[in-house]
Amino acid sequence: RLRGGVLMRWTYSPFFALVVLVSRSASSHFTDLARRAHWRPLYQKACDVLGCNLPSRSDITQLRGANLVVRSHPNYANALIVDAILFNEAKYPQPFPELELSFSALNGGPVASRRFTPQEYLQGDLLGMETMPTRTPLHISLEIVDPGDKAVNYNLRLLPAPQPRDQVS
Fold first, then answer.
1. How confident is the model at residue 168 (pLDDT cuts 50, 70, 90)?
2. What is the pTM of this model?
C-alpha cells in the first residue's frame, strides 16, 4: 500500500508542478496580460475569485497626438514650449502613454530626444488623472531646453504606458 501512495504522488507531481509554473507566470505578467483583450476575461474571472483589481485596458494604436506646436519659451532663453493635443479613440479609458519627443537635422540625423512619463507632463486640469477619457481632447504642454539650430524637424511618439510591477497576491 505504501508503494502505491508513493507512485500516486509521483504521478501527480508533474501536474502540480505545471500548475505552479503556470500560476507563477500568470501572476508575474499580470499587468501586461490582463490588459490584452484575449486574456482579459480569464483574468477577470480569476480576480472575481481572488479579489484583485484588473489594470486599465490599453491599446496604444487607439491613442494619437495632434496639433504639435513648438515655440520659443516666453520667459527663458534657450528653452522651448511644446504643445500637443492627445486623443484616446478607444471605447474605454486607457492609461496615459509615455511620450517621446525627438528632433532631427535637415538630413534626418538625430539631434535630440527625450521621453516624458505621465507624471512629468500631467499638469493643470490633468493633474491626478489616472486614465485618459474616451474621445476627449487633452492639451499637454512640455518645457524643454532648445536643442539648437540643427534641430529643424520634430516628432512626438506615443509609447505604451509604463508598466507598474503589479502582481496578484
1. very low
2. 0.70
